[in-house]
Specification:
The chain is mostly helical and 124 residues long. The chain is 48% helix and 11% strand. A three-stranded antiparallel sheet has the order 1-3-2. Helix 3 packs across helix 4. InterPro entries: ArsR-like_HTH, HTH_ArsR_DNA-bd_dom, Metal_resp_trans_reg, WH-like_DNA-bd_sf, WH_DNA-bd_sf. GO terms for molecular function: DNA binding; DNA-binding transcription factor activity.
């Protein structure tokens, strides 16, 4: 079997991304930002967390290049850095839904899922 060649720098960046995802608050922040941009205050309210704590998490995500900012006057708005980060978080949440019993929320009718559920007999 041939060894898989990956540049060390890419592997280290991937490790840092997964390190950032190893925190529930940061997962929730990225989930909230997956399709929109929000201010620290809006994120703090959505997560029911103190704004300083949310700000610290966002700073870590920004340093890891997982979110970007846009300043408008005195307000700073955050959004995910790119579609890959949004997809990574979305896939992690969807995978977690599959790990539990029942039909995952992203497969239920009206959930806007792009995946058609497969029944136990393999029929879509």
């Amino acid at each position: 079997m041939q060894a898989v060649e990956l540049p060390d720098e890419q592997v280290e960046l991937a490790v840092e991304i997964f390190r950032m995802l190893a925190d529930g608050t940061r997962i929730r922040l990225l989930w909230a930002l997956r399709d929109t941009e929000l201010s620290v205050g809006e994120l703090a309210q959505a997560l029911d967390k103190p704004a300083p704590a949310v700000s610290q998490h966002l700073a870590k995500l920004r340093m890891a290049r997982m979110v970007r900012t846009r300043r408008e006057g005195t307000h700073v708005f955050y959004r995910v850095e790119n579609d890959h980060i949004a997809s990574l978080v979305r896939d992690a949440i969807h995978n977690a839904e599959h790990a539990s019993d029942g039909i995952p929320a992203h497969h239920r009718a009206g959930a806007g899922a792009s995946v058609t559920p497969i029944s136990a007999d393999g029929v879509r």
